Every structure is written in C-alpha cells, then in structure tokens.
Amino acid sequence: MYLGQVIGLAIATRKDERLVGTKLLITQPILPDGSFSGQPIIAVDSVGAGIGERVIFVTGSVAARIMSDPNAPCDAAIVGIIDSIESFHR
Amino acid sequence: MYLGQVIGLAIATRKDERLVGTKLLITQPILPDGSFSGQPIIAVDSVGAGIGERVIFVTGSVAARIMSDPNAPCDAAIVGIIDSIESFHR
Amino acid sequence: MYLGQVIGLAIATRKDERLVGTKLLITQPILPDGSFSGQPIIAVDSVGAGIGERVIFVTGSVAARIMSDPNAPCDAAIVGIIDSIESFHR
Amino acid sequence: MYLGQVIGLAIATRKDERLVGTKLLITQPILPDGSFSGQPIIAVDSVGAGIGERVIFVTGSVAARIMSDPNAPCDAAIVGIIDSIESFHR
Amino acid sequence: MYLGQVIGLAIATRKDERLVGTKLLITQPILPDGSFSGQPIIAVDSVGAGIGERVIFVTGSVAARIMSDPNAPCDAAIVGIIDSIESFHR
C-alpha cells in the first residue's frame, strides 16, 4: 500500500462497462510528511474519500477486489482514509 | 489506472494468436495538466480510442480482462476515454 | 522480496473491512548497508515487527496471502525480521 | 506491452525445469523512435524473434501464458514482432 | 526475467512459516556487461545458486511457483544460473 492524497477527479463517459458508476480519483503519492513524490495515479474508491483527503491505496490485481464486480479491469484502489501518521527517522 | 494520450500505432503481423485482431496503441503517460511523463507503453483498446485522445489505461494482469480471450498475454489496456479532469493542488 | 526498516505507523479508522484489525506499518526500503533508498510503502505485518526493526517485505498480489482473509485488497506485507545480513561486493 | 529490441541471448544450462527448451532473449526497451531507454530484461519468445528485431513484450504473470507449461516461473515474454510504428507527438 | 548477481545472504529466524527452510539471497540486478544497476532484491533460490554467481531471476506472483508451497508469500526467485551472455549493441 502507498500513502496518497486525492487531488482531483477524472470524468470518462465512455469506459469499460465494469467501471460504470465508479469515481475515478486522481491520487498523488505522498511521503509520510505529506510532500508529493512521484506521478499521480487514477484510483477507484471504496471508502468515501473526498478531494484533499489523505488515503491509503493499493495497486495491481488486488485493487479489483474492492469492486462490486471483482473481475473489473481495475489496478488501483483507495482502501483507507488516514487519520494520522506516526513516523520516525523521516 | 493511469492517465495517457494515444500517440501512435504499432503494426505487428507476427504476434501471439490471442492478440490477432487487436489494435496496439502507443500510449504516452501524462500528468493531469496533459504534459508527458515517463515512457510510452503499448496498450490494447476496448473503448474505441483514437490517435490524440486522452485515456485511462490499466497495466498488469487485469488488462487481459478486456480481451475477448481473457487468457491472452496482455498487460496493458485502455479502459476509458477522458472527457475532463478536475485537478487541484497541481 | 525487499529489505526494509519499519519507520512508522499509519492510523486509518475508515478502511476496507478486510483490513480491519491489521497494523499498517510505514516501511522504508533499505540497501544491504542499512541506508535508505526509495519511497516508503505501507505494509501489513504477519511476524510481529516493531518500529525500527529491519524486515523483509513482499509486494503485489502475494502479499495478501499473509492475511486471515487472503482475498483482502493488500499489496505489501512484512514476511520476516532480519537477524543479520552477509553482503559482498557492496 | 512495451517496445523492445532483441540485443542478445543468455545461456543457462542449470535452470528451472519448466524453462528448459526456451530461448532467453536479452531485450532492450526502446522508445517509438528506436532509441534505447531503461534496463534490458530477459524475455522468452513465442514468435520466432531474432537478434536485432524490434518486438513487443509483456511483463508480469501474463507472460507465462505463452509457455507450453503456463505454470512456468516466467515474467517476461515476446508476443509480437514489429513491422512498423506510426508515432505522432514524439 | 532479469540478470542479477548473488551478493549476499539475509538471515531471518522469524519469518512466515511458508518461507522456513528457504535461502534468502541478496541479488543485485546487473546489465549484460556485468555492471551493477538498480537496487538489490531478496530472492529465493531453486537452482543452487552461490554467492558471486550470475543468475536469472523473476519477480511478482510467478516467483512463488518455485516454492514447495506455491502459496508462499514470495515475489522474487532465482530460476537459472548464467553460463554466458551473448550481447550485441551494448
């Protein structure tokens, strides 16, 4: 899993039918201190994340497990909303 | 999922038989502002994407789920065409 | 598998129900000499790793195999605690 | 999928028995203009690719689908030989 | 698959029970000319690789296929020992 921050929304009317009804959230990977690092991904959401919130997301085939159709072509999903981070060494 | 822009087409007469009949679209990863970032990949298409269009693509084993034969050796697929992006913070 | 050091903890009250009850450990990839390299990930733990310990972690779909529910949306897991490293050439 | 060029051959007498009889082709990722980009990988071949040819390869678990034993420990495979590339914007 | 050189050994007494009895080899990715490139990974071994040997390794879920328990949480495995490399262009 990775730390991220929801920074936007992608609108796609034409999409794979198994993705219809999902929100496609632009999610920026972040470091434990909140700074941005790396390239944004598009994640589906299972936990009601909103713009600006810090989240935990997964990538790869396990992401599809949050979909109502777990055979959807989905490779990134938000699986938690961060309350707080306790970080040492960095 | 990732944001991308279709920038070309690869022609391959000799290919795995499970890929016959698919379009192999050269897809450039992009940032939310549309600028190019990273190396192009080759994605199959399930949504009728054309050259120049901005799309959402998946990578890894879930990509094969868009194929008529879901056991095809395919690891990248376009699953949506972007209408608009609402991006904050970047 | 990768070498890492546990450097923190992420607290997420709202999360996928299959992740409830797991500790989400912020894990920094390290080189054999212990220096930090690359971006921290969030890993679940199956071996009782504590803050500061050096560990071995896996990523991708195999990580979910350590969960009590192996269908959890989990893509990173600590699978061992390092006692020592014998490294040559570096 | 990725664009690549076959630049060599790795010989390995001792190998997993499910890989016996396969050619292990050193494959350099390339950009649409043919320039090298990134680190070579070792791919098995299902389409008769030769040294110097430009190819399309897949990575990850789907690569094993080209093997006679689809349970082989294989994570990279050549699935097409490029005839031509039509690239715009780059 | 990737070219690598075994450069060390990680000792982990506490580990997932499905990894007990495996050697955890620190494996440095290399280029065809033998130079180091990228960050070392920890790979299990199925072919009797020793310190200093040049090897072929796989990553991701297919790596677990070399384990006696193919459901082990393992994402990197050595699957061949390199006798020689014939490389062109580089």
Automatic annotation (TrEMBL), chains A, B, C, D, E:
<keyword id="KW-1283">Bacterial microcompartment</keyword>
<dbReference type="Pfam" id="PF03319">
    <property type="entry name" value="EutN_CcmL"/>
</dbReference>
<protein>
    <submittedName>
        <fullName>Ethanolamine utilization protein EutN</fullName>
    </submittedName>
</protein>
<dbReference type="InterPro" id="IPR036677">
    <property type="entry name" value="EutN_CcmL_sf"/>
</dbReference>
<dbReference type="GO" id="GO:0031470">
    <property type="term" value="C:carboxysome"/>
</dbReference>
<keyword id="KW-1282">Carboxysome</keyword>
<dbReference type="InterPro" id="IPR004992">
    <property type="entry name" value="EutN_CcmL"/>
</dbReference>
